[in-house]
Amino acid sequence: MLLSIESSCDDSSIAITEIESLKLLFHKKISQNEEHSKYGGVVPELASRLHIEALPNILQNSSSFFKNIKAVAVTNTPGLSVTLLEGVAMAKALSISLNVPLIAVNHLKGHIYSLFIETKARFPFLTLLISGGHSQLIEVNNWNSFNVVISTLDDSLGESFDKVAKMLGLSYPGGAIIESLALNGDSYKYDFPVPLAYSSQIAFSFSGLKNSVRLAISKETVIDDEVRRNISASFQRVATEHLVMQLKRYLKTNKNRYPWLGIVGGVSANLYIRAKLTDLLTSFNMELFAPDIQYCSDNGAMIGRFGIELFNNKIFASLEDLKIMSRANLTN
Ligand code: KG4
Ligand code: ZN
What we know:
Blueprint: E1 2-6, E2 11-17, E3 24-31, H1 33-37, H2 44-61, E4 71-77, H3 81-98, E5 102-106, H4 107-113, E6 125-130, E7 135-142, E8 145-150, H5 157-167, H6 175-182, H7 207-219, H8 225-253, E9 260-264, H9 271-283, E10 287-289, H10 300-312
Parallel strand pairs: 1-4, 4-5, 6-9, 9-10
Antiparallel strand pairs: 1-2, 2-3, 6-7, 7-8
Helix pairs in contact: 2-3, 4-10, 5-7, 5-8, 6-8, 7-8, 8-9
């Protein structure tokens, strides 16, 4: 069995996966949303202190599996330094006490492998990573080959959802709140311009849309629930139109190369986005796959799933070499 630890931001999570069958035997996650909500975003120092309480608690619940653990995998990049350190310190201590090797997992690859929790990976495919930190379209041609073909010029999609929520006086993280408010809003009430619609550039960009939202809010005399619903619906529609437009541009020049697209990362939990992407892919004869909602946001199961690929390929990290890195891309 593989024990895996995730602590790159504000979720403390540990999973235990059976290496051969890929079966998830144990998975627990403690989120810190409520604690950070008061401050309108993640406070790294507070996150670190909360991990120190949560991780040992979760670990204790998994102790019956310790005798069968063959390796310990941990997120070492990218993320907040002070929170990555908590998971890595725990992983190193476990590696010494259980006398098993360490595996360093890139959080972004973990998100991509959330598509394969309890199932075998199949290649090639395209994946759209849309989270709080990233917005990228990636070609995945084999188990460890990730080619970023579209990235963002400025903000990530998740961050934009969170900023819009903040502007509307909603709590953090705002993505799921915006999605549910949008259900009863008029998505054409505000005609925000679709970013890069009049340029041929194939890239993501959300800062202009965020500014349009800010301007629209400043013109309202009162921010009541109706305004919140309509802004949420209009923002979500335009952000999604932008995603779909850029994907379509990419797919037009890369026809029939990939049979399916997987969406991963916190924002991939959004059902409106899933539906619009499904419509687009159908016209290209492609299928959409998405993880179970519980595996979209940060979790230990996805770290374990990519950890198993590294284990099977005998890619281990030594106690001395396993370092944290706050920034990384898919080549790390
Ligand atoms: O993947 P994740 O948990 O953390 C990072 O690695 O960044 O993603 C968190 C992001 C937040 O910005 C959150 O607002 C967004 O995912 N999110 C959503 C939804 N659920 C979470 N955004 C839109 N719709 C949702 N339903
Ligand atoms: Zn993440």
